[in-house]
Amino acid sequence: MNSAALIGGTGLVGSQILSALQSIRQKPTIYAIGRREIPNAPANTRSIAEPDSELWATKFKAISPTPDVLLSALGTTRGLAGSFDAQRAIDFDLNLSLARAAKESGVKTYVLISSGAVSSKSRIPYQRLKGEIEDAVKALGFPHTVIVKPGLLVGKRQEGRLIESVLQTVCRGMRLISQTYLTDWWAQDVDVIGRAAVAAALECAEGKRERGVWLVEASDILRLGKQQTG
């Protein structure tokens, strides 16, 4: 992999993806697109800061040569966005706009951080939304489409999320009893998820995976996340 682009590189999982990309021994060029600069970025990381997210697809298309991989950890919550429609504008519309720009530019491998147990047929709005973006990016027909489907994200956010915080407390309590044996299937550490996303992208870029859609679920996340990228 000579180069990769990352969307959502300042978030909980995205920051871990960025760290995993930066740890690759071959030092690919990394393009991080977001509203603000990546602080203290190493020489191989090029921060593309654009406050207007509607211009991100245009910014992506301007990258030359086209990155081998696009990884998206872009997402928000209804609470942070202000409404479900505003959340959908980010989680679905913006993600799809960037995926289309990547496909039109010739990107070979697209990696989406999604969530476990989601479906476009779900009656639960969040799960339906995540399922719809999965279906939409699958339909674009990248040579390699990787959808990473973690359970509970175990890590520290800058902003608090009550339900997630309660579940994380439960998870940590169970790990005191059984290490990760009782939680691996429903909760994963964000650094493991980040490494797994990059390891999956590398396997695709290096021709180690057949073309098509690869759903990276809990067992794959744990296996790939233990690998040293690069």
Q: Tell me, what's the shape?
A: globular
Rg, rounded, reads: 17 Å
Tally of strands? 9
Please report which band the strand proportion falls in: under 5%, 5-15%, 15-25%, 25-35%, 35-45% or over 45%. 15-25%
**Unreliable stretches:** none
Class by helix and strand content? Answer: alpha/beta
Number of helices: 8
The major sheet is characterized as: 7 strands, parallel
Order of helices and strands: EHEEHEHHEHEEHEHEH
Mean pLDDT: 90
Share of helical residues? 40-55%
Tell me which oligomeric state these chains represent: single chain
Please list the strands of the largest sheet in the order they lie side by side. 3-2-1-4-5-6-9
Distance between the termini: 9 Å
Can you describe what's shown?
The chain has 230 residues and is an alpha/beta fold. Helices cover 42% and strands 18% of the residues. It is built from eight helices and nine strands. The strands form two sheets. It has a seven-stranded parallel sheet, sandwiched between helices. Strand 7, helix 6 (162-178) and strand 8 form a beta-alpha-beta unit. The longest helix has 22 residues, at 84-105. The model has no long low-confidence stretch (mean pLDDT 90).
